[in-house]
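// run 5 | inverse folding | seed 20
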């Protein structure tokens, strides 16, 4: 702090207190230390605050993460529940659908079986009816054939018998004529001889005539009422043998117009007046009988070869 002289440098001398310098230095050091400590404390506090902030942030992040995980978990659970519910609903719908289809299928199957059974029953009934009708037709045809054959046989036999009888009758008649001619010739010759002898043998022709008259005048024996009733009873019994349920027709009658062969074979039979039901039953029984008892004599046959029987079931 001073000045100099002319042309020189002026130096001001200052007195320095070492204690003050030391004290000042110490103060500066203390200030620096305090500042450093304060800075350290500030940094530490800042670091603590930062650590606390980081911890809070980390905690918040953990909380948010946990919350997000819970949310995701809840969402997933909800979605899973939704899917499960949807799956259960779909399963229920499918089961319902299957049950309905099964029920419809079972109903259709039942209806099909019932239809098949009905068709089978109808088919069986139709077949049975057809077979029954065919059996009736076959039986009727067989009976008609048998009846026709029997009638044809009877007609043939009757024709043969008639021809034989006609032939025999013709032969008998021819023989009788021949014998008559011979007798007439012999009688004439005898008459001529008698005439020539003058009546010595005039009685011979009278005797011959008497003999001839005796033969020609013989009366044909008749048929007794007893014989007629007896044979009629045999025919009634023969038909009665094949007659069914006679008790149903008690009190009814039917006229049966019957034609017989000489051996009793039934040539033809028809119903005349009388109860229709009885007549049908009687015709059936007679056709089953086919052959009646043989007439005991030619006279009986002549009486019964074409007659009407008053049939009464017993």
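// decoded
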């Amino acid at each position: 702090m001073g000045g100099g002289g002319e042309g020189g440098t002026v130096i001001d001398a200052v007195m320095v207190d070492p204690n003050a310098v030391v004290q000042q230095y110490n103060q500066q050091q203390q200030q620096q230390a305090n500042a450093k400590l304060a800075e350290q404390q500030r940094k530490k506090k800042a670091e603590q605050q930062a650590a606390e902030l980081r911890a809070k942030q980390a905690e918040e992040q953990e909380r948010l993460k946990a919350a997000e995980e819970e949310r995701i978990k809840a969402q997933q659970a909800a979605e899973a529940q939704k899917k499960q519910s949807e799956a259960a609903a779909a399963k229920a719908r499918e089961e319902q659908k299957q049950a309905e289809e099964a029920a419809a299928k079972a109903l259709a199957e039942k209806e099909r079986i019932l239809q098949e059974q009905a068709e089978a029953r109808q088919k069986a009934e139709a077949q049975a009816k057809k077979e029954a009708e065919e059996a009736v037709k076959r039986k009727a045809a067989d009976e008609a054939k048998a009846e026709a054959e029997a009638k044809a046989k009877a007609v043939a036999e009757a024709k043969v018998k008639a021809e034989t009888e006609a032939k025999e009758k013709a032969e008998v008649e021819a023989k009788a004529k021949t014998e008559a001619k011979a007798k007439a010739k012999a009688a004439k010759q005898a008459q001529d001889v008698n005439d020539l002898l003058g009546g010595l043998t005039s009685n011979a022709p009278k005797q011959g005539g008497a003999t001839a008259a005796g033969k020609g005048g013989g009366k044909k024996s008749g048929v007794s009422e007893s014989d007629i009733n007896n044979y009629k009873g045999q025919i009634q019994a023969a038909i009665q043998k094949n007659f069914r349920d006679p008790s149903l027709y008690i009190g009814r009658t039917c006229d049966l117009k019957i034609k017989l062969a000489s051996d009793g074979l039934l040539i033809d039979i028809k119903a005349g007046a009388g109860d229709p039901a009885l007549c049908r039953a009687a015709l059936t029984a007679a056709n089953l009988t086919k052959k009646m008892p043989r007439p005991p004599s030619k006279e009986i046959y002549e009486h019964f070869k074409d007659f009407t029987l008053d049939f009464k079931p017993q």
